[in-house]
Write a structure and sequence with these properties.
Layout (H helix, E strand, L loop, with lengths): L1 E5 H8 L6 H11 L1 E4 L2 E4 L4 H12 L3 E5 L5 H12 L5 E6 L7 E5 L8 E5 L1 H8 L2 H4 L2 E5 L2 H7 L5 E6 L5 H13 L1 E12 L7 H12 L2 E5 L5 H4 L9 E6 L7 H31 L13
Helix pairs in contact: 1-3, 3-4, 8-11
């Protein structure tokens, strides 16, 4: 079952006092601006307050994030951990190393407005992030299947899934989290949206909603993406599930996904091979991996 709720209602129901909206906005301008077709886009800044709220309410000790990106979600969670003195660690997974420089749009609040900088996450974080936040974060580099196979994690209490967005990738990340989850857990899925190439919505609709009660949190209350024609309908947001609403045994859910997840692993192995070839023959390299933000 999927229940729709606005982000203000969701945060209000959690009874958590969060920092002012402009504080998240200022953080987002440094970590989460996107430039597309010469337009600067503030891409879902509402994920900052939402993640801060969930971490503050449930106080997870071990957090697993798929898809670090610029680190806005990561640092919103680290912010909550610090403010509430939670003994927590964020394991954040991305195919780009945190020391890898890439072209990003940043507004440094110096009067110049958004500019393009070639910087790594480490460089940006060292410049603007309090040390007590960054010490809560452990970055792990690699494709998620590779990472989950090679690393041993403690039991995970909370996962933020925002890595590969196609159906098989999202399914793999949820599956691999579930295999490493604690008995009590929560998961937030980003980008429940109806656009080509994205499978989050289909995965939630067809599978997750049969296993859990799902809250679809509307983080685009003005329906900007629908008005721009980016999505076919107004159903866009982030989906929250908690183990309290789980309808069947966790092992049954895991077993039901195993055969499909193997297809993702094979796909990932091809991608890793392609990466190795690209490094040796850079003229064959594509500009961007289409399945990752």
């Amino acid at each position: 079952m999927i229940t729709k709720i606005t982000i203000d209602e969701f945060i209000g129901n959690c009874n958590i006092i969060i920092p002012e909206e402009n504080e998240f906005h200022n953080l987002g301008k440094k970590l989460a601006l996107h430039k597309k077709d010469n337009e600067i886009i503030e891409l879902n800044f509402n994920r900052g307050p939402l993640l801060y709220t969930l971490i503050s309410k449930y106080k997870p000790k071990n957090i697993l994030e798929f898809g670090t990106g610029g680190g806005f979600g990561t640092m919103s969670m680290a912010w909550a951990i610090t403010d509430h003195e939670i003994d927590g660690t964020i394991f954040t997974v991305d195919i780009l190393d945190s020391s890898h420089s890439w072209s990003r749009t940043i507004d440094w609040d110096n009067g110049e407005g958004p500019i393009i900088n070639e910087m790594s996450n480490n460089e940006v974080w060292n410049k603007i992030i309090p040390i007590e936040w960054s010490t809560k974060v452990k970055t792990i580099t690699g494709y998620s299947g590779q990472v989950m196979a090679k690393n041993k994690f403690p039991k995970i209490d909370f996962s933020y899934i925002d890595g590969a967005h196609f159906y098989g990738g999202v399914k793999h990340d949820f599956y691999s989290f579930l295999k490493n989850s604690n008995e009590t857990f929560g998961v937030l899925f980003d980008d429940y949206i109806d656009i080509p190439g994205y499978g989050v919505k289909d995965f939630i609709d067809k599978e997750v909603s049969k296993w859990f009660d799902v809250e679809l949190v509307d983080t685009d209350t003005e329906h900007r993406l629908f008005k721009k024609g980016i999505t076919k309908n107004k159903e866009y947001g982030m989906c929250w599930i908690h183990s309290d609403s789980m309808k069947i045994a966790k092992e049954e859910i895991i077993n039901s996904m195993e055969s499909e997840v193997k297809k993702y692993i094979l796909f990932e192995k091809r991608m890793i091979l392609r990466d190795k070839i690209n490094k040796k023959l850079p003229f064959l390299k594509n500009h961007k991996l289409r399945w990752w933000k």
